[in-house]
Amino acid sequence: MVLEGLPSGYRPPILVVQHIPASGPTHLAEIFARRTRLQVKEADDKDQLRSGMLYFAAPGYHLLVEADRSLSLSQDDAVHFSRPSIDVLFESAADTWGAQVAGVLLTGANEDGAAGLEAIHRNGGLTVIQDPAEAAMPTMPRAALQRFAPDYILPLRDIHRLLRELE
């Protein structure tokens, strides 16, 4: 619902971390390619970020961004029992891009993402948290809200609208 309806000419690259088991193939890129107008792919090590591309973290690998606008994959230890970890991506984006990054934290069952979103906030980036009242699993949004006050606390439909405005 958040990414559906973004126009094919949407300029910012979008990076997504979904907690999925490393065993077996994932079909997230294929599923989202059918549901969105964006170009979609599973991130590869050293991919150069392209405008309008939706990148999914590969199962079993942390996803990081580099200063040269490339992506890195890492098999470092799990963070909050997760690899890929939202915190790892958000912290690398905050360190690399500072105020030029926007982080969106949605539903989830652990605290992953809270520290990374706070890092984005500290570095002047835009921070958005899904309203815990509508989240299927509100642990992640609540964990972030206990750490800091984000720029926005929104239901999914309004997060979608905000993303369109960021274009």
Q: How would you characterize the overall build of this protein?
A:
This protein has helices at 28-35, 86-97, 114-122, 139-147, 156-166; strands at 14-16, 39-42, 53-56, 62-65, 71-74, 102-105, 126-130, 152-154. With 167 residues, the chain is α/β, with parallel strands linked by helices. The protein has a single domain, classed as Rossmann fold (3-Layer(aba) Sandwich), CATH 3.40.50.180. The strands form three sheets. A three-stranded parallel sheet has the order 1-3-2, covered by helices on one side. Helix 2 (86-97) packs parallel to helix 3 and helix 3 (114-122) packs parallel to helix 4. It is globular, with a radius of gyration of 15 Å.
Features:
three-stranded parallel beta sheet, hydrolase, globular, EC 3.1.1.61, alpha/beta, 167 residues, 29% helix, Rossmann fold, 5 helices, phosphorelay response regulator activity
Assembly context of the chains: single chain
Q: Output the helix-strand order.
A: EHEEEEHEHEHEH
Q: End-to-end distance, in Å?
A: 17 Å
Q: Count the E strands.
A: 8
The total tally of domains equals 1
CATH overall fold name: Rossmann fold
Q: Portion of residues in helices? A: 25-40%
Structural class by secondary-structure content? alpha/beta
What percentage of amino acids are in beta strands? 15-25%
CATH class: Alpha Beta
CATH architecture: 3-Layer(aba) Sandwich
Largest sheet: 3 strands, parallel
The outline comes out as globular
CATH superfamily placement: Methylesterase CheB, C-terminal domain
Could you tell me the mean pLDDT? 94
Low-confidence runs (pLDDT<50, min 5 residues)? none
Number of helices: 5
